[in-house]
């Protein structure tokens, strides 16, 4: 125990001169040295560091014990302890100097890590924003890409389907059967030979044909792959239709190959200025195969209950080739008027034969859909207008423009139509025939507007020529112009009742109603068919016709008035009575009037058509009636002989001039006829009538008295004036 105390006091005594802190450090170091000597495992046996002396005591007890000889080990132990102490002190000093640096480095590293973290967070925020922006930008691409991927999957599915179809076709002997039938029939003689020949194997071949045809019908083809109209852009507005049935497609394959071989690429047969070559070829192919399709294929379709018409299905497949060809060629010749016009002409001829001869329905895709495409259609309208105006110039400048080609055929030449007018209306009729099969009403209405513009242009040209002939209003050319105007107006009125134009009128009504371009009254008139699509043109032509007729009537009326000057001055008061004359004869002063009238009537009857001449003489008679009544009858007084002579001149000479044109011409001279009746009443009747009119003016009895003597047109006052013009009254003064 003494050793233990000595050992315990050694370090403490040597350190008494040090400060309390230093002493404390030394004690702690001594404890550490002892702990190092005792061993960690021995210290670990205690409960806390407060039991260190007991551990040291136990250590000495173990090393020295009660054997004093063991004290020899103390020097070695002290040496070991001192060495251990020095090592521990060095470690403590090293640790005490390095720990702050490590802490400082750790703090520095932590700060740097924090800065890096903040930078990373900023970058992460920016990157997050960029990613969101990129995702938003890329979203449509992703959708498109997704759609394309879906299309790729769909195409892959179709390709797989077509692969199966190809394998099935390889297993089929359908094309071999067609080959045995010498399909396709390139010439008409070949088709006739196949139809007439009956080889021994024919029943077997036809049986195989039927079997294989029915099997192919059961295969469902994809509409997306085989609907032919979808091979052309949507701008052509082709009607929706199902694909050509598979067996017919296979039958069309060799013809499609021939068509593309000859009419595409650099082949000599592919000439853009010769559309008639491929159009005629397709028509010939349709004709060559019609009999076979009707007699051999159609019964198979009927047998399986199919509604497909074999011939039309075959034709539809070939027409698609034409549509593709037109769609490719038209842009190349769109601005060459001659080539484009030639193409349109050939296409229209093709369409006419296709529909009329081969019964191709207008509801199927056809060439008119290609011509209806906006750019092509507007060009068509422009070219149609250009060539129509050129033809109008030509027809009006022709030497035979104003003569009728039927002038020597009386029965045919009733309208006395000049050649220019008939040619013009034929031109309009041809234009109608060219556009009537257009697929939409809107396109037809645009052509109708073109026709109306042409009519108006022709009317203006006729007006210009008419003004040049105004001084010779009874001349041949003037009358020819009038006949032309009347003919055009009459034909347009007839067309207005045509079913085609009535349908266009209904379509126009719908357009006008949508655009509010007409008043409610005009819309009502169109809807009730009171007016027509040509009414504006007809009204202008009728106005021109009336003006020209009026000018002619005025011209003849002036001549008649000049010729009637002597007749107006006739001495009606001093003419002998009828009893004083053996035979009544025409007044010599009336001869110029009647001769002039007769000559002009004959002239215009020959130069004007019947309907115009009828209007003319009726207008002239109306003016003559008033003129004779006012300027001759009311301007004179009449004795008995004068009244009788007037009546004879009128009823036996003037009126009969018009008996060739009507049964009772006197009814058109009501004023003159009734005036003659009043002037020629016998004395008693005249006195009685005069008394009635004076005693009961305006009364029914007066009207009845007038009607009784044949007066219906003249008013009571006029009759009283006429009675006062009579000079042959009895001496009673009445």
UniProtKB/TrEMBL annotation:
A single BP term in Gene Ontology: endoplasmic reticulum to Golgi vesicle-mediated transport
Ranges of Basic and acidic residues composition bias in the record: 18-28
Cellular component, GO annotation: Dsl1/NZR complex
This protein's UniProt keywords: Coiled coil
Residue ranges, annotated region (Disordered): 1-28
Pfam families hit by this protein: RINT1_TIP1 (PF04437)
Coiled-coil segments: 71-98
Family (UniProt): Belongs to the RINT1 family.
Record-given protein name: RAD50-interacting protein 1
Organism (species): Phyllostomus discolor
